[in-house]
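Discrete fold record:
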Amino acid sequence: MREIPAELAATYRANGWWTDETIGDMLTAGLAAAPDTPFRIHSALRPWAGTFADVELVARRLATGLADRGVQPGDVVAFQLPNWMEAAATFWASAMLGAAVVPIVHFYGRKEISYILRDVEPKVFIGAERFGNLTYDHDVTTDIPIVGIVDRTFDDLLADEPMTGHVRTDPGSCTLIAYTSGTTSNPKGVLHSHRTLGHETRQLSDMYPDDRGNQLTAAPVGHFIGMVNAFLIPVLDGSPINLTDVWNPGEALRLMRTDGLTVGGGATYFMTSLIDHPDFTPDHVSHMRYAGLGGSSVPSAITTRLSDLGIIVFRSYGSTEHPSITGSYCTEPADKRNHTDGHALSGVEVRLSEDGEILSRGPDLCMGYTDDELTARAFDADGWYHTGDIGTLDDDGYLCITDRKADIIIRGGENVSALEVEEALLGMPGVAEAAAVSAPDPRLGEHVAAVLRLRPDHPMPTIEDIQAHFAQIGLAKQKWPEELHRVDDFPRTASGKVQKFLVRKNIAATA
């Protein structure tokens, strides 16, 4: 992990942003304080209902079972599960053991999973037999000592006697390795310590309104924010956990009426899919009082539309590396909440480089990457993280994201590496040159557009041809191009580099 400047670490401790509490400490105290709190999975495939205590019992039996098989503090436990009870049990058990947990988004394909498992060499892998496009592939786990597959072998890992207490470990050690796509072709393994993850959990919890209601979480628990919202903040607050494994806006609207659930934001797609649904009525607004938006582009047209319905919008900006850089509280002025990405949050510092790139540092900033070269490129000696995003700061210190220096597409809150898409496109017959860029999407904010320059006398592939190729090489469906363009040549710099900002601009103008 990267070296944290001593003066920064001292400041974080002195202000209480870094504490000696581990994630195991946080969970043990929170679960003991509210054992009867409801925990429900809203699923057509695997519905489940119980309490914190019921899930904790499974987690503690799993912890004993893994410990009996040699899992120790510092070992790595990876899981790829939908928003199911077993995902919570695996996450909680790992924290109780002092192990480092690796959540993997359930829609990652064979290529991404194989890379992640090679990168972290987990001692344990917990997966699903089948879910949507996900099918358990035994070949990718052959070198992992302990494998548990839900509905097949997961229950075999549960000991009769639950673990008591939890293993105390160094709060500065790694507790989470979260994978995110970026400009590299392979996912990046982001390292978080107990201190960075603990601060983020407390900070994000403080941002949420006290009267936010009984939240329905649809963001995948394999994704950083989905995981924090599902498994940590409710335990810290003693609030019910309601998860859904498939986002169905019609079902979410029904649950608002029947179960009194609320939807409080996330990527803009979650909110727009609700208000655009034919079942949406003004009565639903009482279950959508707040919309905390982030994770993808947040157009002002959307925040204005939500505000006109009476929904209080507040925005935030961050990443898996630095989860909460800026944000607004729901009590701040509407123009700031609706039309900026907020101000620096507790302990966070933000500055702009000469070219407008956003640099940040703070107590929730990660400890680096599993790849030392990536760490060296992204973090400087003074502890600043170079985000790859371009922005402006107004006189009041509120940030606006204006462009993206990093070459990624953010589809419904999920990062897609343009380089990875381009490498896949170049593997198709007749493709001489390819550019993958973001295109506007009314539901998801952005989707992948493929722009191709073909070799002479080669026919243009169809979008179906391209998607079949991506399926064959095992790329997650979220990375498949959804729009296709042909060019005779690309706009270029004097050195011949493709000017992607012009490609994006041309596609946006066409749209």
About this structure: The chain has a mean pLDDT of 92.
